[in-house]
């Protein structure tokens, strides 16, 4: 053993002990004839004191940053104590030292506020991982992992490993594939999730399954996506939606308690997908703050059960609103005194291509009770007040109004709401607000193919009282322009998403467990009997031998860790992440393979020019 | 919720409770006007009683094997109790029932002694997993997983996930590769182990790492190999061999205690690789029984420190021994009365191609103190006695002697020893014997390339006092016939294998952590500087920035589970295993992929007719 204690162990109660430590040189400070060294390891930092008698040895073996050092010495009380670190009352008076390994000068400083840019830190990830900021993230990740396992174990869940080399059944996302040398011309696929396996386990009677497991999706990467990612994957048999919601609300609350010390006792609200879209323009609303969407005008074809406030804006011949499909507003708290420059900035913001609005209307609900707007020539102060009231604005608020095509405008108001919340500091890292979003549409319309696609996945069951709508109707869409009138458009899924602070951290559903219904689902998605058999014959087969009712959920583990860690970027919660091109710049992977490998796999490249 | 209790919950103390159960119909037995049903789930079996009043309903909805059934009813004391099951004192008097799902007749019986062959059980794996025998294995696997995690957590190890999409650096085994769509012409590899990543984590200061993780090797499969397998992968910094041995002996003892209730307090022996080969002909000896190898004759070039008993067999002009490189014997306890037929059978056994011996000599150490052999015309009874004594034979033992080329003969005597132990019932499933094998050769000679290959892997350090032999000598082998005289042939590795009941369940080493030594190792394996940089530049780079001394171990989790479960076949300890052609016959994977996938990946097939 190279050490008797770690660099985080020793306290004043260890005074006079003879100890051996090993770690990395964080800093070297020479004061006259004595030298102080901060020695660092995973557990902390301990101050070392090299007295005059070691000067010759130090001259012969000079210490540098990040050198690996072993010292023997005695624990002594410090003269000048450091209250900021747990070992701050003591130091080690070194009697012997040995350099275990040298270090070149690191390309960036190993400190919380490092001088290294993203690229260099990714290339030297093994050095970046030494930084306390990154270490804390990985420690948090492990705590969450451990906490989740303990909860699931206590609730009778079994961790059962499912295979990684499976069959390619591309549905939504693209599969990564693996050529099989022993079966030339054939390929395995890496799992996008263990979905069908966990369902088979339910058929096999393992009624509570979990796994913390890598999954793979070959998608074009956005900033916050990785080609390989980790799920907390769970499934239960003999359950209904309510059972799943209770069990997994419990899981997240357990994690909050374990890793953040937070007693999350609030009731977790449930919101239908339709309400979420209506009130927040978003199916994963951040409910830490209010600013609900005021629907001033909606198209006739959607939200058919909802009532808009079109009477408040109609009849003044304001073409922008009159010609828009949708007009929506939010009341931004306390911003009525925004200057012209500031409102112009917001207008520019919503006109950016990512948002895509043509302009923005605002109403200032002044502190003195008056109203002022960018559309004063169309709307009287009374009308402005009525709109402001509809948007639940209080004196001092700034009402922002967007108008345009339904889908784009609704997304834009949601983006604007989030942007304003960010600006106003309403999205606090240390505040956690859970929400279940339920009753998603089962199908989405695919314009290109004029057909239905599964919004969640093809194994999600319809709401119990919508099963017959699915069974009794032909999924074919005769008139593409009237797809919204097709009975399938209104089938709701028995599905649920867990939303944390405006992020979807988990999602799942009650599954189909009847062969006929599953076949109907596959058919609705455009799969003929042969394709069904080829891709999912094993599952259809399994459903013939006594499949129990079942359902489950999967949490995006990387994102869950990031959000609990107070960040929305997942990359620093992954030990060895890939960049946006799917490259590991440290390894320099992916890379070419050699001719022998091509020959053995019986494949060759077929590069487009 | 579909049930108030599981099928394993209810006891006589629940008498008169109204309950709801759900599960699978195991058996249906009709006695006159009443019907008994055994209802099964993961937790047990509960007897259901359908009285006369339900006959009409049962006629309308007949129950079959493996139907999924929900019942409401009352817990009652049974008239005829079943002491074999925990719920055996009660039954449920059913008031209502509902068939949740029907089942076709399963292709084999869902019982411990099933009538299904291997192939059909693999195809219908979801049904095979219902059998108690398989379920117990998966439950054991989960218990071991949980126990290992708890021990490692208590010892400050952190579970840190390493990537699955890495870089192909084929050394020993073949990599599975994954074409990258986003980087056309380039491939990821699936990890054969997280070896280099865990070493990087040590460089990063995470001094105790573990992971229970899938690994991948594209090898031709033997009966007991899987293309994907699971490791308990561990690494520690600032440690020497002794630290690792203590920590992981502790792990396995902890598992024994947790999952088998066994207090393994015996000292775990350590045996050098040389002693293991000398005494057992095998580097993973089963030491539950004795039958050590008696070395009657060895070649001059190997085991140079060991003394054989050549004087006992020489000088009688027995050509078979005189011309053999190696002559080895074992004394099989209590078999001196084997008939001619039985010894002939053994001779045939060693002549099988897998063993490859030309014949077998035997000596019977009769119970009356006399000796009789198949070579009586060459050896006097005194000489036979001397050989028997050298083999530690007691009266009543049968001494079996093999002669031939060193490598093959030594393996053959080991195989024969194991075969005889199996025959004699000396390999007991419920007896566990651990052993560390240490001091392996660092290199193996590769005849084809006339060069060295790493016996363990290229990151294993030599024994501390052998480092200089490695540094100070040129690895090139000038004279292939004299490779054994090359200084590298005698370098021992700082490596250790954990052997359990004759199976290697874990293996590891202290690693190289100095850049120069690692470069020397790569060079010894025939890698020039460019290739080193291309394949392992990141690791060599990391070693420049303060790499600490470190080492680790990996346990073959599938095998560990199997052996603790009293089996040597790993397949039934894996939920969804592949067959010997690497196929998942349930999924029918691997399979062809479609043209769009080929086009996107920019590869095509290149099949040899």
Folded structure, characterized:
The structure is a homodimer of 609-residue chains. By secondary structure, the first copy, chain A, is α+β, with helices and mostly antiparallel strands. Chain A contains 17 helices and 23 strands. Chain A has helices spanning 55-60, 118-123, 125-128, 132-154, 195-203, 241-260, 273-280, 310-313, 319-322, 340-351, 381-390, 406-423, 467-472, 515-524, 529-542, 557-564, 595-601, and strands spanning 18-31, 34-41, 44-50, 68-77, 90-101, 158-159, 177-179, 187-189, 208-216, 228-237, 269-272, 294-297, 326-332, 361-365, 371-373, 398-404, 434-438, 443-446, 451-454, 495-500, 503-510, 550-556, 603-605. In chain A, a hairpin with a 5-residue loop joins strand 14 and strand 15 (371-373). In chain A, helix 4 (132-154) packs across helix 6, helix 4 (132-154) packs across helix 16 and helix 14 runs antiparallel to helix 15 (529-542). The model of chain A has no long low-confidence stretch (mean pLDDT 95). At the A-B interface, helix 3, helix 4, strand 6, strand 7 and strand 8 of A face strand 1, helix 3, helix 4, strand 6 and strand 7 of B. Strand 23 of chain A pairs antiparallel with strand 23 (603-605) of chain B, so a sheet runs across the interface.
